[in-house]
Design a protein that fits this description.
alpha/beta, Rossmann fold, 46% helix, 16% strand
């Protein structure tokens, strides 16, 4: 049986779908407040009988910080897909995120070793890679360098990745996948929020460049790496490198909306996050823009996926095709929700 963490998230829900469709038995960890109805909705994007597939999931309420609960969840498990993580760019969440993403991963690794798990896949991030000099392309050998430009999320995933490398040294058959920005449907207030922002009339873009990949490709790559026993290695998973302007133009095109037209220079983004911090403080709300967000969107990050392509003969879905499909789902759900 397979154990999956993060099953109620964007990547986890799609990975659940792909594992179940291939006939595998899956036990999925979720927090008590985890919303399985979002998973059901994701399934419905791809099949008509989503309830039937949902009935095959063995849900377990557990917290990665609870060693006893993790031990129970690991009973009878032969493979682990660790897709669960906390993602936040808000300072008040940083302490908890570091704890969950590092210590929670360590707990899972320790229990996997103790339980004799045969295969382990860890979802890391391109945020754990070093940044190639002179805007050159980063690959798996571009190693982490401490820097003020590193996000706390990146620090937390780097710490989690180190725990997996430690597990590998202790005999765990583990593989690490480093996705770039994951594009997929269904999580319009979180991971898929850019689609919502463009639909609602986003007017601004920054000079930054980043990598993007479809959620189904990340799921497919994870399963391929596990089935192919590509252990003791890490693999970047990124379909294309696009500027934010290029990304937003594609989203606007397929949403039938005007593309953002105002280029925000780095100096202006530094002003924006400070103004937003004051507004959030005065209103008691979360800031829409943080310093980490402003720093990230102004940087040029590009990635090579040659290693993954060679290992699996992997072919990525083009980013525009992914965006078109996600926009179709978004527009369809907007129509349904407005009735």
């Amino acid at each position: 049986m397979i154990l999956l963490t993060g099953g109620t998230g964007l990547l986890g829900s799609h990975l659940l779908f792909d594992l179940l469709k291939s006939g595998r038995e899956v036990r999925a960890i979720k927090r008590t407040a985890g919303n399985v109805e979002t998973v059901r909705r994701v399934f419905s994007y791809y099949i008509d009988n989503s309830d039937e597939l949902m009935g095959k999931i063995e849900w377990v309420n557990a917290d990665l910080m609870d060693n006893g609960a993790i031990e129970d969840a690991m009973d009878g498990i032969s493979e682990v897909y660790h897709a669960g993580a906390m993602v936040s760019f808000f300072p008040k969440d940083h302490k908890e995120m570091l704890k969950v993403n590092i210590e929670g991963t360590a707990n899972l690794v320790n229990q996997a070793i103790e339980s004799g798990v045969s295969k382990f896949c860890y979802v890391s991030s391109v945020a754990t890679l070093g940044r190639a000099e002179n805007d050159e392309v980063s690959n798996e050998e571009t190693y982490w360098v401490p820097s003020k430009k590193n996000s706390v999320y990146g620090v937390s995933k780097y710490g989690g990745e180190r725990e997996v490398w430690r597990g590998i040294e202790e005999g765990l058959n583990a593989v690490i996948i480093n996705p770039s920005v994951i594009l997929g449907p269904g999580f319009w207030k979180k991971n898929s929020g850019l689609f919502r922002l463009v639909f609602e009339g986003l007017k601004f873009y920054t000079r930054g460049v980043n990598g993007y990949v479809g959620v189904r490709d990340v799921s497919r790559a994870m399963i391929g790496l596990m089935d192919g026993n590509h252990f003791g290695k890490r693999f970047i998973c990124s379909a294309e490198n696009l500027s934010y302007q290029e990304l937003f133009i594609l989203m606007a095109k397929h949403l039938g909306k005007p593309a953002p037209f105002f280029n925000v220079p780095p100096a202006m983004t530094s002003i924006a996050w400070r103004v937003e911090a004051v507004r959030a403080f005065l209103t008691g709300s979360k800031p829409e823009v943080t310093r980490e967000m402003a720093t990230t969107t102004a940087q040029v990050y590009t990635y090579s996926t040659e290693k993954l392509r060679n290992a699996l003969g992997f072919q990525f879905q083009p980013v525009e095709e992914i965006i078109r499909e996600v926009c179709e789902v978004y527009r369809r759900e907007r129509v349904v929700s407005s009735k």
